[in-house]
Fold this sequence. Notes:
Layout: H1 2-31, H2 41-50, E1 72-74, E2 77-78, H3 79-87, E3 89-93, E4 99-105, E5 112-113, E6 119-123, H4 127-132, H5 140-147, E7 155-159, H6 160-166, H7 182-196, H8 202-212
Helix pairs in contact: 2-7, 2-8, 7-8
Amino acid sequence: MSGTRTRSLTGLLATAAVLALAACTVTGATTGQGGGGSAPPGQAGAQLATLTVAGGLSMAGYSRDRFHIWAAQGGNCDTRDVVLKRDGQGVAADGNCKITKGSWTSPYNLKSYSDPLQLDIDHVVPLANAWKSGAKSWTDVQRTDFANDLTRPQLLAVDASDNRSKGDQDPSTWKPPNQAFWCTYATDWITVKAYWKLTVTAAEKAALTTMLDSCT
């Protein structure tokens, strides 16, 4: 009888552990904390081949306000706060989610920073580029989801000057100064465009193909 109780208790504990793990997994997926991974280079190459090549839509009507950055993410944090926490080391914040300390390394230049004000949160696929490659026809809700996408590899804490140098350029005219990051940058870009069904220009596709060649 005691053996039966022990086995039952063990089974209940195992079930509880599985349910707890599932709850944690769902929570992580919902908040997006931890970011999202890009496709492996081989898969990214296959995804790139499926993207529609087009010249781009008109920029008429474009405004960053149409994308609503940064959206609230709970706990007094917005999307920028979440990315800074995710991409940094030893990050601390006060009760209002103001980042008070931490350290960050920008993947674009491999320089390290301790002041979050020296960092921008880069949209890997810039908002203006998204607009002319398909987002112009989206709803404002879809554009908000895109601009605050914590699931795909769309948001990175990077050197502010690099981000502003990049602007709304695609890989045919701007690449990260750190060439060792080109493979990741290309796969991130392709992963985002494939998920959101955005188009690419011929020059953009050629540049991405070249950057994938740097993958080992």
